[in-house]
Amino acid sequence: MSNDSHRTLNLLGAVVTGVHDQLASAVETAAGRSGALAATLAMAAQYDGLTMGTLQRFLGISRPATIRLVNLLERDGLAVRRHLDDDHRTTSVVLTNAGHREARRVLAARRSVLERLLAESSKQERVVLDRVLERVLTAMITHPDRGYEVCRLCDISTCPPSRCPVETAVVAMEPDAAEGLLTSQNER
Predict the structure, then answer these.
(1) Cβ neighbours around 40 below 10 Å, total
(2) pLDDT in tens, 69-116
(3) Which residues contact 184 (CB under 8 A, 6 or more apart)?
(4) What is the pTM of this model?
(5) Closest CA to 41 of 55, 62, 20, 57
(6) DSSP labels, the chain
């Protein structure tokens, strides 16, 4: 590998680290809570009837940790639990009006960081960047659950499933899965 290739890898690593740090700081500040709680707000706002199991997949955490997160959101009046079946085995997380407001702040904070980072980019540069990012995202999806984790803070309204490289990669791995594995319930 040439020195230029090593430099490209190093630059990518620095960008990933720096963007992660800025996004984590912005969404945690906007939500006034941890990144996992901010991601829970973002996901529950975009996925009507988000089940506890699906939330667990998005966050990549244990069932007890998922329950603790939802308990905190309930305590703060940001979410409620609803049973989806008669025997109460499936529970969804539904945001209150206050929870939806907080989720909008989280997604706006995320968008603000990214807009600021790309403010000087031309339209042509963004087209090239889109293509590169699509390939990188596709390469990141090594297991269907990874798609949930990668998209945990995505603004689903800006990346419809028909154009989402993560959705495409996940569905390719799970061809028998229900259509729209990562599709917002609002779009179905």
Answers:
(1) 30
(2) 999 999 999 999 998 877 678 889 999 999 999 999 999 999 999 999
(3) 46, 47, 156, 157
(4) 0.84
(5) 55
(6) --HHHHHHHHHHHHHHHHHHHHHHHHHHHHHTS-HHHHHHHHHHHHSTTEEHHHHHHHHT--HHHHHHHHHHHHHTTSEEEEE-STTS--EEEEE-HHHHHHHHHHHHHHHHHHHHHTTT--HHHHHHHHHHHHHHHHHH-SSHHHHHHHTTT--GGGS-GGG-HHHHHHHHH-TTSPS-TT--GGG-
